[in-house]
Fold this sequence. Notes:
This protein has 324 residues and is α+β, with helices and mostly antiparallel strands. It has helices spanning 6-9, 59-74, 106-113, 118-137, 200-203, 210-226, 250-253, 260-268, 280-292; strands at 15-16, 20-29, 32-39, 44-51, 83-88, 94-99, 103-105, 140-141, 150-154, 160-164, 171-172, 191-193, 232-234, 239-241, 312-314.
Amino acid sequence: MPKNNFEYNSLLGKTIANDYKIEKLLGEGGMGAVFCAKQLSDSQNIALKVILPENITDNTLVQRFLREAKVGLLLSHPNIVKTHKYSKTPDGLLFIVMEYIEGETLQNYLQNHGRLSLQKIVEFLGQLAGALDNAHKHKVLHRDLKPENILVTKLENGLEVTKLTDFGIAKILSSEQGKTSNTLLTGTGQVVGTPKYMSPEQLLGLPIKQTTDVYSLGLIVYRMLTGTTPLEFEGKTGTIFKVSEDLPPISHKFSFLPTAFDRVFQKVLNRDPSERYQSTGEFFDKFAAVAAKYPSLVIPPLSLTNDEEIPITIAPTILQNKTD
């Protein structure tokens, strides 16, 4: 990636593929930069994700970029950011044309709102579960579910809607096997990602299937409800404690929650994938059913912080799997 965003800023005002006029840099990340652009053929705003020509020599980066584009074209759901096309300019710039979403990441939303109400969580969970069930029906695992990869936007009627994005490390399952090994391992045997939202099997580089996304969604709901995640870390090494232990019941840590939520979270966050909910839709149904029993439950506010989830690299050999 560039040492600064000068190269990306140099694209401002330029027209890509004779149709997309780049107007504003929205963000820069590990796979490229995202711009707001005007599609000249229909005067609509779109999001344009690009990799500069000098970065195309990084084959891993390019393959993740192309995977995101192909998966985006495969999926169509109101709660998944829509991909329109991908291509390459004559001078070597790779780009993906996507739906432009006016809003913020769920990470920023949670920093601004703290803990969410049960009603809001049920709304968001229903949307995200539907998006993930749609992806899983197409044999696609997201593998990088976290608040930074979920956008929150507001419709004209005022309804807040979530949109799942960033399928750069997604995996398309074999139709014969229905599962895959964790191919996020680098040449040095390390797992890349954001450990706070990874399942135990993903952290350990073990075979994964759709239940790994179920686990990650459970962690996101845990965060929306409590303002934190249940796993503990030490510094930038990402050393994980408790990955080989059962998590304590959520009501033991947060006394404002009825014990009825314990079973839901202990199932969705079970270390054994076969013991979890087997789909995100099943998780939504169970959580919504419990939430419906407590329509007057008040979730106390959380002292807001600027804590950010930092993608880090960890060595799975330091972790221990369940032995019993």
